[in-house]
Amino acid sequence: MDREKKLREKARELLESKEVDLVIGYGWTRYGKRVAPVFITRPEDVDRLIWNPMCVNNLTLYITRKYPDVKAMGRPAVVVKGCDAKTVNVLIQEGQLKREDVVLLGIPCEGVVYRQELYDGEVTKENVSPKCVVCDVKNPPLYDHLIGEKVEEGSGFEGARNIYQEIEELDKKPEGERWAFWMEHFERCIRCYACRQICPLCYCERCIAEKNMPQWIDTSAHGRGNVAWNLKRAMDLAGRCVFCGECERACPVNIPLNLINQKLSMVVEESFNHRPGYESEGHPPLIVYSLEDREDFIR
Amino acid sequence: MARIGVFVCQCGNNIASTVDTQKVAEEMKKIPGVVYTQDYKFMCSAVGQELLKKVVKEHRLDGIVVAACSPHMHEKTFRKACEAAGLNPYRCEIANIREQCSWVHHDKTKKTGTLKSTDLTRMTIERLKKNKPLKTINIPLKKKALVIGGGIAGIQAALDIAESGYEVILVEKEPSIGGHMAQLSETFPTMDCSQCILTPKMVELSMHEKVRLLTYSEVEKVEGYIGNFRVQIRKKAKSVIEDLCTGCGECIEKCPFKADSEFEVMKGHKRKVIYVPFPQAVPNIPVIDREHCPKFLKDKCGICAKVCGPKAIDYSQQDEIITEEVGAIVVATGYDLMPVESFGEYGYGRIKDVVSGLYFERLASASGPTGGEIRRPSDGKVPETVVFIQCVGSRDPKRGVPYCSKICCMYSAKHTMLYKHKVHHGQAYVFYMDIRSGGKRYDEFVRRAIEEEGAVYLRGRVSSVYERDGKVIVEGADTLSGTQVEIEADMVVLATAIVPRKGAKELAQRLGISYDTYGFYNESHPKLRPVETNTAGIFLAGTCQGPMDIPDSVAQGSAAASKVISLFSREDLVREPILAEVDERVCNACWDCYYACPYSAIEQHPLKGRDGSIVRWVARVNEGACQGCGVCVAACRSKAIDLKGYTDEQVYAAINALV
């Protein structure tokens, strides 16, 4: 495949010239059926890099403070789709990353699958990831090297489930029903924290869930602690989440985390006219005080 | 195990009438760690404090809870008593069982009140167990003051501060100091000439060696905290070099272009494009109004530069940004008058001979556009009948403002007198709602206007004002006689409401002080802290705080100055240790706290390794700047910040005591 070939060429060039010490990309797992992150340090290994619609992971996760061992490997190049590149912008805004510390291999993307096991050689409206249905960043907004030609923006998955429509429909329900909807989902939570582990913006040195003096969030997988955890996680991402969809993909009990994240994103956009990930200047709006804030929530 | 003592105050009957204090004290005895409890009639009395000190020593207590009134009242009292008894003052906590309990419960069986007091006191005991001893901190102090606004309040404040030997910077937006008082004719109740009593003060200020006067300037940015403010001031380009200008006025004389005069209030009165606002202006240095000067609009003219002897005109002058460090700020930004064009029934803006009170001041002023003769604006005729309408916009919650503008009753009475003194055969009518003349010799003054100077006072509102045959007809009600009245007047004067200065809210936000719904600045306490704001080191003077007359403004200017002087009389500042603290081990350096802090008290601090290289960055709290508001604590996602004295652990312990 053309993109794959160009990707490998660029990776080899970067590694050989010692511009980077490490290329983080996608590769086949041992049995050759599933895709997983690969960390290439030698030019002769670049052929392990691949590109196909199963390359769902947001690889910017590995350049956050959560992975000091990856940081110790040296200067990285990371393969990013449009949605992943937005994460980099937020990380820069929050002082977690300097733009010059990473080389971004931007890869134009025409949609990936929701879960790898659903893939059957083609991305269809049945197996497409919900983020791709509403995608406006098929071409990464931020990159150092673009792999292959740009593609045309726009979705092309008519009839697929649309997250914003789902939120609208949920919003129409009475308060009690909405609460019951979320309770039902949160009750299933087993507190494995997979959502936290896979999120590149959940990078705290010490998560509040692990703070025990005092223990604000009950650790047992029980209604009370589950609600506290899920709400705290969602609130912390409000105005920051770039909709890479990784949390919902990682959740072993299918809590519709995209729904709650995007609902909060919509509220923030409406209130502050801010969509995270499109620029690296400034700071997420829920923190910053501005004279232009509408303040209409104070009644 | 802790050794805690609990005192439950009866506050006479204030608490005891709805709370069984003895029972509360007994209940507290059951809590582990509590070794002494007692209820007492007045804990804040000298006897009560002695009791507290005695018990602390006798029972070797390591913590005290006083269940009494709000900590705003006596926290300091009890903490001092603890300190005197050898206990760290921050090991003393107050449970508020008066304002938050006994005063809001009316159950005379004392059941609910006692139950709630028990809960509140128990929460405070658990909170106290997690208290750490804290120490006050000392921070340096910059002994220089900034006064914003050069009206009478600001002038008085600046003079008082300068007189006690401290440096003062006075920033005034307009080209001259003086404010509204410079526009007035005579002042009530003594009828002395406003300018005659004001201008000596203006001159004194400008000559004072401790005062730096920055006119035509505005405060752009304020950073820092009490004792250590950093202020950015924009000195607008006057287009005149101040050091060279002699104030001869040749440029003004020869300038061929005119624009509306701000000082003379009403449209149609012109000043030159290069101008001083009024003849006694201080400093007596003209400025060029760049919005109207053809030199700046079309690069034509340039006469002023040609006629200027000392070559002081500089068209290329730029705005200058001045940065100053000051220890205290006095805000004295003054007021505006409410625009009353929207009050259609009074005809302001539509009928030429309907004018504002401030315009009448200019008419009556010897230095005014008519040289002190009362002449109406439409045809310059001397008005034979003048109607004064009070409460235009004031005390009108529906269309104007609900508050009383305070000065209008007095100045309207003064206006009738001024009018009568100048037009002997004229007749003045006043429509009023109530006459508010509280003040030394104020009521006598109004009586004089009515009884000796023959002003006719009609109690009632005006329903419409319209023109007929060159007369202004005023229709209104006289509610005392129960009749409708129609007056054929030659001129109508409206006592329009006082409103906050335009841009007051923006300045408040820049300063970090609070304001009310109208935009008047909030004092820290309406009775006991009338010139302080809730931001330490920033004080208020004059009408920026609410409607007020000249004596009040002057008194406030002096009061604010005395606050500044007493602040500057100390060697350095002693601060409460209720401050934020970062746990650097778990700080993510995401800078949420840095951006959230309203006092710029968070610093980005590099942690260095042995070789001197930066290992990582962390947030650190500047103890001088931190006000202990807790915004950073709420902003921190990983809860790496805590507020000393109000730590998460303390709050959690208190909540846990309840559930």
Task: Give a quick set of tags describing it.
heterodimer, A: 299 residues, alpha/beta, five-stranded mixed sheet, 10 helices, 5 strands, 33% helix, globular, B: 659 residues, Rossmann fold, FAD/NAD(P)-binding domain, Alpha-Beta Plaits, five-stranded parallel sheet, 25% strand
Structural notes for this entry:
- The complex is a heterodimer of chains A (299) and B (659).
- Chain A is α/β, with parallel strands linked by helices and 299 residues long.
- Chain A has ten helices and five strands.
- Chain A has helices at residues 2-16, 68-71, 82-93, 130-133, 163-172, 175-187, 194-198, 223-237, 246-250, 257-272; strands at 22-28, 35-40, 76-80, 103-106, 145-146.
- In chain A, strands 2-1-3-4-5 form a five-stranded mixed β-sheet.
- In chain A, helix 5 crosses helix 10 (257-272).
- The longest helix of chain A is centred in the C-terminal third of the chain and has 16 residues, at 257-272.
- In chain A, 40% of the residues are buried.
- Chain B is of the alpha/beta class and 659 residues long.
- Among the domains of chain B are: 4-129, Rossmann fold (3-Layer(aba) Sandwich), CATH 3.40.50; 336-499, FAD/NAD(P)-binding domain (3-Layer(bba) Sandwich); 579-643, Alpha-Beta Plaits, CATH 3.30.70.3270.
- Chain B contains 18 helices and 34 strands.
- In chain B, the strands form twelve sheets. Chain B has a five-stranded parallel β-sheet. A five-stranded parallel β-sheet of chain B has the order 20-27-21-22-23. Chain B has a four-stranded parallel β-sheet with strand order 2-1-3-4, with helices on both faces.
- In chain B, strand 21 (385-392), helix 12 and strand 22 (427-432) form a beta-alpha-beta unit.
- Chain B is globular, with a radius of gyration of 31 Å.
- Chain A binds chain B through residues 65, 94-96, 203-208, 211, 213-214, 216, 236, 283-284, 287-289, 291, and chain B through 506, 509, 585-592, 595-596, 598, 617, 635, 637-640, 648-649, 652-653.
